[in-house]
Structures are given as C-alpha cells and as structure tokens.
Design a protein that fits this description.
Blueprint (H helix, E strand, L loop, with lengths): L5 E8 L2 E8 L2 E5 L1 E6 L9 H6 L5 E4 H6 L3 H6 L3 H5 L5 E4 L2 H7 L3 E3 L4 E4 L6 E4 L1 H11 L3 E3 L11 H22 L6 E6 L5 H12 L5 E4 L8 H11 L9 E3 L5 H8 L5 E4 L1 H7 L2 E4 L2 E4 L19 H4 L3 H10 L2 H28 L2 H14 L6
Parallel strand pairs: 4-5, 4-14, 5-6, 6-10, 10-11, 11-12, 12-13, 13-14
Antiparallel strand pairs: 1-2, 2-3, 7-8, 8-9, 15-16
Helix pairs in contact: 6-7, 7-8, 8-9, 11-14, 13-14, 14-15
Keywords: Glycosyltransferase, Queuosine biosynthesis, Transferase, tRNA processing
Subunit structure: Homodimer. Within each dimer, one monomer is responsible for RNA recognition and catalysis, while the other monomer binds to the replacement base PreQ1.
EC number: 2.4.2.29
Length: about 375
C-alpha cells in the first residue's frame, strides 16, 4: 500500500499490460475486474465473499447512492467503506450514465443536468461540482468526472456536442476535486463511434494531466467490432503511465480482447445480474440453469473450480432453485460468476507475465467452444 496514488506497469505482452495501482486503502492488481456495488452492496453477495474471490476494488454508484440513502447520510455514518463494511478501494462513477439512461425527464445544460428521480419523481440537479462533492461525501478512492453519455447511433454533430461538453465538465471536475493525496479523479473519453472525435477527446483529457483515464459510452448496444475499433484508436492516445478503464464492459470475450488493446480496468453488472437470472459463466462457456436438460444432471458447474458454488452443488439442484424462484439460486450463481470473472483476471495477469496472452486467449476460447459436455 502507498500513501499516494501510483500506477506501475510490471510487465507487457504486446499492448497488454500487467500492472498495479497502489493507494492508501490497498493495491489493485491490473488488469482488474471491479464487481458492481450499485447501492452499497454487490447484489446477492457478502462483502467477505467478494474479497475472498480476489476482488481488490469494487464500484459504487453515485446516482443510486445520492437518491438512497443520500450522500450526506452516508458521510454522517462514516463513509461508504464503513457503511458497507468494505475497507478496500472503491471507485464511484459520476452518476452521468444513470441520469441519461434511467431518468425519463432530464435537461442537459452547460451548468449541469436537471433530472427527475426514477425512485420518487423528485427533481435533482447534478453539476460537475456536485458530482465530485457527492463522491467526496461517499469518500471513494477513485472518482469519475461527470460526462454526457449519449445513445448510439446518434448524428455526428450531437456526438461532438456531447463530447465537447464532457471535456468542459472534466476541467470543472478537476478543479472541484483539487489535490486529494492518495485519491484520484479519472477523466472519461467520449466521442461515440467516431474515431476522430474519440482521438480529440483522448488528447484533450491527456493534456489535463489526470491520474487515470476511462473510455466511456461503449457497451451500449453497438457491435463488438465497433468497440474494439474505438479502443484501437483511443488507447494509443492515452498516457502509457496512467491506468485505463473501460466502463461497463463486459463479457469475458470483451475483456480478453480489450486487455489485448491496453485496457487495465473493467466493471460490469453482467456476472451478478446473470446470476440472479439463472445464467452461469464457466470455463466451458455459459450455462442456462433454467433449461430443463439440467433437471437431473448431477454434475456440478465445474468440478475443478475452487469456488464451492461451482464445485459442490449439482446442476439439478441449481436448476431446482432457479425454477422455484429461491433466493439461494441467485446467490450461488452470482458467487460462481464472480469467481469465474476473478479467476479469468488472475489467468490474464499470469499470461501477460509469461508473455503468452495470445496463446492463453486461444485456449480459453477453445474451451468455450467445446462447451459443457463431460469429457470423454
């Protein structure tokens, strides 16, 4: 651990980086996957389970926490780490994505965004300064700038307008954040699916000298090849000595291909949301426990896994739990899924250190193709 925020690249394999972020609340091994703790909880998981699976950092959501229970209340209760009993690093997003996606009524202006809560209809205002203030009240370790994330596809002029506004908001967030030893504020590259605008955004943010950089506005329904093309254009323009975070991504395949392009950090609701809906991620690919073919299958999800949820429960039992709507089904499958994701990240880090990420990626993908049938 460090009294300051530092990032070191420990090994490279092509464009892929094996690194480490050091900060007062702990070290973050990269490439890293951050479980999403939207409202101060990683859904269906105990925090000690999340830690035991290998998570160095989790994500908290500014939008949801400002609505319930309120940032000022969390601050009075000791901050999000104490409130949620997670003493390790926390990254909070700015709330911008949720404002744009969840609020039926919103108005974006230079000053910020006015929106109506999806919870109770109350009107709120979120400026760049207020977003940073809320994240400070939550006492998160990595804070994100407020940005405008627009839907794709959109007209180029609209994408450019939102990107330029996000750059101006990044400057205001930087001023509001100030100098906070041991913490960091990341800027967010915007520009939709336009390589030219993405490059302009990346270069402008890099000139601000921030402690880290995110790529936002992707994984919103565009084809994977579009996302990868944008990363190919964006990552080389970001400082090599700063962490790079791809927001809201994604599938295991997305992660493998994005790491190969130089991404260091990921978050996604996919493993937890899928678990609550009966879908398991395994080294043999995805398994839908709702399917009737699992009703009398005595095999576990993965007999070689270190995770009890994957190793010790039959598919027949998991199928029963899912079909019966039992809460335990979602708990076990979420446990399995986060174990798989964190195991994948450990595998990726080891492969980069060994200089064989390409070969290991091919092996992982081949095992997905072979599927979940028992070996002959």
């Amino acid at each position: 651990m460090s009294d300051t925020f530092t990032f070191r690249v420990l090994a490279t394999d092509g464009k892929a980086r094996r690194g480490e972020i050091s900060m007062p609340r702990g070290n973050i091994r990269t490439p890293a996957f951050m479980p999403v703790g939207t409202g101060g909880t990683v859904k269906a998981m105990y925090m000690d389970q999340v830690r035991a699976l290998g998570s160095d950092i989790i994500l908290g959501n500014t939008y949801h926490l400002m609505l319930r229970p309120g940032a000022e209340r969390v601050a009075r209760l000791g901050g999000l780490h104490e409130f949620a009993r997670w003493p390790y690093p926390i990254l909070t997003d700015s709330g911008g994505f949720q404002v744009m996606s969840l609020s039926a009524l919103r108005k974006v202006r230079e000053e910020g965004v006015t929106f109506r809560s999806h919870v109770d209809g109350e009107v709120h205002e979120m400026s760049p300064e207020r977003s940073i203030e809320i994240q400070g009240l939550l006492d998160s370790d990595i804070q994100m700038q407020l940005d405008e994330c627009i839907a794709l596809p959109s007209p180029e002029k609209e994408i450019e307008r939102a990107m330029e506004l996000s750059l101006r908001w990044a400057e205001r967030c930087k001023i509001a954040f100030g100098d906070q030893p041991g913490k960091a504020m990341f800027g967010i590259v915007q520009g939709g699916d336009n390589r030219r605008l993405r490059l302009r955004s990346a270069e402008a943010l890099a000139a601000m000298g921030l402690k880290g950089y995110a790529v936002g506005g992707l994984a919103v329904g565009e084809p994977q090849e579009v996302m990868l093309d944008i990363l190919d254009a964006t990552c080389p323009a970001l400082p090599a000595n700063k962490p790079r975070y791809l927001m809201g991504v994604g599938t295991p395949d997305d992660i493998l291909k994005s790491v190969a392009r130089g991404i260091d950090m990921f978050d996604c609701v996919m493993p937890t949301r899928a678990g609550r809906h009966g879908l398991a991620f395994t080294r043999r690919g995805k398994i839908n426990l709702k399917n009737a073919r699992h009703a009398e299958d005595t095999r576990p999800l993965d007999e070689e896994s270190d995770c009890p949820a994957a190793r010790d429960y039959s598919r027949a039992y998991l199928h029963h739990l899912v079909k019966s709507g039992e809460a335990l089904g979602g708990m076990l499958l979420t446990w399995n899924n986060l174990a798989y994701y964190q195991g994948l990240m450990a595998d990726i880090r080891a492969a980069i250190e060994a200089g064989r990420l390409g070969e290991r990626t091919a092996e992982i993908q081949e095992e997905w193709v072979r599927g979940d049938l028992p070996a002959l």
